[in-house]
């Protein structure tokens, strides 16, 4: 209250009684008032000056706990209360004494106990971070990284196997070094022209070979090369492009490659890049049904389908091959949207009637209706079936919906598409509106491995039966190689017009370094240990060395029935990601990327099984 307003009530105006030495009562009163105002001002100033104890604590202790407590504790609401500073100082002293005791305690602990404590602290931080959401890739939630078992292997004891394995590593080195020398940063290498090559599948994203090869380099322990690749990814891998990409190809090669590189190496840059790219792919799902577009402009987020696809349809093998990667993206980002998108695809499929229990290759994303009733376990269909089985396996066999969908689909395939030739070769034909085309693609040969991988969980005692089917498909695919001049398999082979396992059309005679046949040998070897699978793999190695290896890398060939190779001049990125990886694993022990802990995406990028008992959770956003 201002002093002047008090005067009329307290002052008695009697100036006569005043003397030079003594003050009159009013004067005394005014003096008293001025003095008390002065004292009040001085006190006030003390509270407006910075609190020295806080300054000191900031400089010397950097203790956020102390800072927080002094700012928000009950005393701070009453800055004038006596003893506040003492209480703060006492708290600092207490905290420090506590810290000293804890440190003493820690020194007495065993290393494993200390480790456990650190882990708990990390987990606490993690759950705090979770509250901040996971959408900003620069602000991803903290995850505890554990390398799943079997990321690298050891040399096989058997000298021949050891030598063969070393040979595959040498092939990888030749493919990689050539790419590095002649096409570094391009998507792929032209090994004859010794220049870079880019297909329009990746828009203007660069470095497909680098990202596709990362995990192969790692598992072969080519760490100098892996580090160079990491350096390139850190500095150059850029998804901010105004270009249209294939959602499927970018997902299986780039997202899959980055995820595997993260799980193998623990390097954060790979998690960050995978999530960043995953987020760029999300607009592809903006369709009335949530079935994604095949093509997407990464800048505008505008999607569309391949102009050749039946009535504007999306393709089964494309929208059906996102599940594994997207489940891991949700796990590593804390963002459930990725998982929701792929689970919705299933929901749409489960609502539809399936002709003879089969899944047509074409589905319209606007109407949610099937397009042409064409069914294939090769091109346009293949990896959809693969991802049903692997979704179940990757969930540590908890995703029963995926399991049922896989075994039901396989039963329909067996009934409607699987046939035996008069010469006794089992093959999987293509189905067009109820009519069979007796042709099998090189791509379809992956099915031997898939059926072997799923045989163990097959319902109604069908394990043995499915293992036989898998072995028969492996044999047929081997025959497709054995019946050519170059001992490499054609793109597609037929079982009609008097031929078996032979390509009859010129445009089906090429071999582009594809992995599917070797992939099946690798699975068959792991499940049976029948030496013929390693022998068949070795035959393929010799053919690759003889006909595909050139000074500048490895090239596909235009006609596997010609007596000498005519090179197509492309070293496909999947040659490093898949073909060489599966060959290396074929000559490695079973505990290297063991199936109990890993599933391979369709581009052979290993992703960890998400363990239900959480014993070897590779990464946990808690
Ligand atoms: C790879 O990109 C993948 O395996 C895909 O699923 C289909 N085929 C090529 C290699 O042949």
TrEMBL record:
- What Enzyme Commission number(s) apply to this enzyme? 3.2.1.-
Membrane topology category: Single-pass type II membrane protein
One CC-aspect GO term: endomembrane system
Q: What class of enzyme is it?
A: hydrolase
For molecular function, the Gene Ontology terms on record are: mannosyl-oligosaccharide 1,2-alpha-mannosidase activity
Q: What does this protein do?
A: Involved in the maturation of Asn-linked oligosaccharides. Progressively trim alpha-1,2-linked mannose residues from Man(9)GlcNAc(2) to produce Man(5)GlcNAc(2).
Q: Which family does it belong to?
A: Belongs to the glycosyl hydrolase 47 family.
Q: What is this protein called?
A: alpha-1,2-Mannosidase
